[in-house]
Design goal:
Helices cover 40% and strands 17% of the residues. The protein has 6 helices and 6 strands, in the order βαβααβαβαββα.
Amino acid sequence: MEVLAISGTPRPGGNTELLIEAALEPFKEKSWEVTRFLLSTRTVAPCDGCDICLQTDECVIRDDMDLLYEKFASCDAIIIASPVYYRNVSAQLKAVFDRHHALVRSKPLTGKPGGAIVVGGGTNGGQSLALMIIYNFFLSAGALAVPGARNGVSVVADKPGDVLAQPDRLKQARILGENVLKYATLLRSDQ
């Protein structure tokens, strides 16, 4: 069993990546294969809108998105996290969402459970909107949006490492991981 974790932050080692790690703990404890796709170390160009993928089921742009196309098909669950920029997900993560368009017919994420984590710099930083954008991606891709303790995980943190002083938020990320794991296991046992 494999979980795919996509971190949308361009900042290596920041709060978004720390929260992803907390959400992955339950998967590691159950010996799942864990694939981290950190946009702080990867390059995904924006979609150029050529629509060639609608005829070929393949994007013509060659970059690190090729690995994600493979992982979308092989994973059993997905967790996506992003910092909030201007009440939206990061540009890097938005590029991933747009480039997923190449899979509009094959829909490899159909029926797979997914969880969302967002980190904003203030209490009115747009976290709710960013969560909805990730959930909208899940719905558009055919994935199942799984809640955490209440909804997705929404965190207020500004400077790198701020979330380490918020054990309740790290716990919420872990609960999200537990819930995604539970649904993935249930779905797998139904097959």
